[in-house]
Amino acid sequence: MTLFLVCFTSGASILLSFLLFFHPLQQNVKANRWLGLFVFIMGCAFISTYLLITGRSISAGLFFKALTGVQFLLAPSLYMSTLYFVKPGKVFTAADLVHFIPFVVYSIAEIWWMPRQESISTLPLLHINENVSFLVRDILPFLSLFYLIRSYRVLLKHRSNLKLISANLSEVDLGWLVQFLFILLLTIIIWINDALFELPFLTEATPFVYTGCIFFLAYFSIKQRAIFAFREQDMKEILYVLDQSNHESDAIGTEATAELQTHPTFAAADEQGQVTEKEQRVIKRLTAEQLERLSARLISLMETDRLFLDNDLNLPMVAERLGIGIHETSFLINQTTNSNFYNFINKYRVNEAKKLLGSAKMEQLNMLGIAFASGFNSKTTFNTTFKKMVGVSPSEYLKNLKN
């Protein structure tokens, strides 16, 4: 049974890797190609496991050594995939090469060791007890654990950054990838157990956990949505906003200034004499006059036009209605509300939900209907945001109203 699952999981991994590399929906292309490489290497790892179980690792010779060597690309490829998921405009740089140093070092060592029949991966680095030794290949789970933690921190930052540009995060916050990392953590624990402790109950569960891991990744990776489904002309400014998220900045670049001054809305306003002289002299930041005027327009969009009721509302859409650039809009919201886009929009939505919960419309709408009527695009997001801002869930709030 174990041998069957090893072969089955290897085949499933290799098939999934091709689906990711040539993703049918062409979404998050670079990220999915790195993820495809990660899954392909997992498939190679299962092939090497098969060779070890069947005792063919020595007879396989060069093939087994190559399979073991590529496993040193496993952790870096997952980390690079995560980086490309959270920043699609990322460019591979020389600094990224540092993540592949373990693979290069191991490959050089294996080539140097080539005259020997066995792989360098099976050599002991230290003896733990008379039955267990720490082998060269046992470095792999600890390397994977290191990069898993780094990937998790990147995803946490991603969730925080999304609040700068979107009011609905449920389908683009890469929650499935976070869950996958937790499943990988379990597999790494089992991997370490196989290497060092060999606890029977964990060893027996190993093939089932790995198989479940592959099916989980297959389901969510094919189901995934585009993380940054914005127009190409908006992406540069969106990435600028995300790049500036690590520190508060009121500086607006000269390139953005030129865009602000030449925007059709401002040009039309200028012809009508509605833009003051100071507003035309935007150099590095929005002036106090601009902030005041744009802030009034922003509040009007929310309270008069009720723009927050758009379930798919995002920062570029608000910027377009204001007639200014995306990062100027982000700066405007931060300066006038001392908050990010996510909290700013959802505050209006929660207030709308409170009104609906206390109105006669409750007789016509259930909680899901209230959520959508308030601008939320899922019941889960509605419940979580409402409880965070009000202190109680929507159901508890309604119960309190009735009492």
Structure report:
The chain folds into three domains: 2-223, Rhopdopsin 7-helix transmembrane proteins, CATH 1.20.1070; 230-338, no CATH class; 350-403, Homeodomain-like (Arc Repressor Mutant, subunit A, Orthogonal Bundle). The chain has 20 helices and two strands. It has helices spanning 2-21, 29-53, 57-60, 62-70, 74-86, 101-112, 139-162, 175-197, 200-223, 232-243, 254-262, 264-271, 277-280, 288-303, 315-322, 326-337, 341-357, 367-373, 379-390, 394-402, and strands at 124-127, 133-135. Strand 1 and strand 2 form a beta hairpin. Helix 5 (74-86) runs parallel beside helix 7 (139-162) and helix 15 (315-322) crosses helix 16. The N and C termini lie far apart (59 Å). The relative contact order is 0.08.
What is the strand tally?
Answer: 2
CATH topology descriptor of the largest domain = Rhopdopsin 7-helix transmembrane proteins
**Overall CATH class of the largest domain:** Mainly Alpha
What is the number of domains?
3
State the helicity in percent bands: 55-70%
Order of helices and strands: HHHHHHEEHHHHHHHHHHHHHH
Uncertain segments of ≥5 residues (pLDDT<50)? 246-284
Radius of gyration, taken over Cα atoms and rounded to an integer in Å: 27 Å
Strand content: under 5%
CATH architecture of the largest domain: Up-down Bundle
Query: How are the strands of the largest sheet arranged?
Result: 1-2
Q: What is the terminal-to-terminal distance?
A: 59 Å
Major sheet summary line: 2 strands, antiparallel
